[in-house]
Structure formats: C-alpha cells, structure tokens
Structure prediction request, 375 residues.
Amino acid sequence: MSRRSNAILALLLSAGIASLGLYVGSRLEQVEEEVPVGLQGAARENSLLAAERFLDRMGLPAAGFESLGTMPPQHDALVLTETTRSLSKREVSSLATWVAGGGHIIVSPARDGYDPLFSVLGVEVIRRAPGEGEKPAVASSLVSIPFSGPEESLQARMGEDIRLRVLRRPGDPAPERSEPAAIVGFPMMSGTISAVSDMDFIKNDAIGDLDHARLFWRLVRQGGTPNGVWLVRGGESVSLAALLWRRSRRLLIALTALIVAWLWTSTVRFGPLLAVPAPGSRSLLEHVEAVGFFLWRRGGHSVLIESARAELRREISRRRPYLDRLSHAERSTALAAESSLPRRDILSALAAPCPRDPERFTRTMRTLEALRKAL
Prediction:
C-alpha cells in the first residue's frame, strides 16, 4: 500500500474510534454514591474516641485506656465498657472499695457469662435466653430512659438480651426488689453506681444517634459532676506482638526486609552443585573382589577354597611333579621347607574342610596364594 492509502486508513480508524467514544459517552450517566469505608485512624483503634472528645468539649477532662491498671482518683468517674471481663477477687474488692470511698462507676455487665463485679455491687443481671430456633445474636430496640420524670425521658437503642435489677443489701438505701430495667443507678456509701445493660450507644458509630450523647452526659453527672472521667474500652489482654503489629506494622515490615537482605548478603553461598563424574572403567581386581564378595554372601565358601586348591595342584604338577605322589602330610612337610610357612597351616589349607569363619577363611586363602608363589 502507498503512503497516501495508509494515511487515509489511519484517519478513518481514528474517526471510528472517536465516534464510538462519543456514542458510549452519550449513553453513560454519572451517578454519585456514598460508599461506607468504616472508621479510620485513631477512631478505628479507640472505640470511645468520640465519647472522650465529647466530654472534653463539655469541659470535663477525659482519658481513654485499653485496660484498667490502677484505680482512678477519688471523685472521678470510671466507665467500664468491656464485653469480656476477667477480674480477680482482689481487683473486684478494690473497685468496690474505690466506689464506696467516693468514686462513680458506670459499668455494663460482661456478655460472656457470670460477672463477679455486679454481684459485689448488688446488681442482678437478668439474661434472656434465646428461644427455640433463635440465634444467640444480640438484637437491639429503642428504649425510653426516664430521669426526673416521664417528660424528661431520653431515647436510646440498647440490646434486648440483658436487663438489670437492684438487690437490697444491709445498709444500702436501695429498694428491696425493683423491676428489671436497662439502666439502674443508686448510691453506695460515698460513691455512686450506674449500671447499664448495654454501653454500645456511647461508641464512635452510635453516640451521635438519638439521645445517646445526652444520656451519656446524664450518666456521668448522675452522682454529681466528677473531677474527670476514665474510659476503659478493653477487656482482653493484648500481647506485645499484637500491639507492635497494630502500632508499627510498616516499621516491622521494613525491619524484616532489612534482616532478610542482610542474611542474604552475609551467608556463604556455595554455588551450583557439581555434576557427578561418569564412572570410569573398573580394574580386573575390582571385578574379582566383587565376584568373591558375591560368592561369600551366597554361601559359596567351598567354591573359592576349591578353586584356589585346584590352582595350587596345577602349579605343583607343572613345577614339582614328584609332590603329586606324596600324601598330604608328606607334601605339607616338603612345601614347608620350600616356603618357610608353618607346616600346620599348610596341612590345614590343603586338606582341612572349608572354614566358614571369615578370619580362618582369609588365613587359608592367604596360605594357598603364598604356596603358589613360592613354587
């Protein structure tokens, strides 16, 4: 094809592609859609970050913790939101003593079974068992929480599987038996107890819904405005390896790559494997030895001995024919004189039964070979 034809073909192809693009573009419609990406950054690691910042904006100092290591100062509020709780008797006693001394605890029951902390605080945890065919998943519903009166009730969404009831204890002003409720609060000596059946409403993705923020603010200030608030979101002990991976993942990956590169450069490399050399031709002696070992393993001792004796008799007939007419004893005496070998060994090699002991067999074969060479 000529240059002009190629130019026309290229122009037509470009025009076709442009027309196709315009057609497809006219048929498409741009639509904006919000895609939830979940929590990011610090909010992903700290489920109570929004509650912490909410309290700070309200003028109440707040601090978040993954676990409760020490007791807060007196006249502070402590918020425990763990879904699993493993407290020793000493820790439970320390919490009760701290509350009685003027602390304010806002706590929800553990979802993994019996909670010793609630038993000490005098709160009964009523768990609704799933009916037949129901899944044990926690369902939530809208709950109305009255404070000063019905006109001041707050709306919150809480789980339906747990409700609380206050039990009477000697010296406590709590009622003898109350109706199950989602939230119960009462004083304990100089402190205050606020028990909540479900604390998920103060988490990052829920505190902005309904009256959750107002309800949380009322709970924190129920026994009076505290000096500060401790928010404990943990419940499970995090290993050092998991914590490092969570906080410094990129650094660990870079250090691992650096260590691998250092090992690669510092270790001794031996190069490729050498090819196995082809076997050369074997000598006659190796062949004879192989045949001898084969006969020995097969029980052919007598064949080897008789072959050596026959070879010796042929040499005697050829070089010392007069020895053929002598007996074994006389022949042994004559051969001992010529070879300087012991007569007893010569007689055993000439006439004794074939030995099966390896040592005697080797000595007999050595004697027969020495006699053959001495002739």
Summary: The chain has two domains: 42-129+139-238, 284-374. Residues 284-374 form one domain. The radius of gyration is 50 Å.
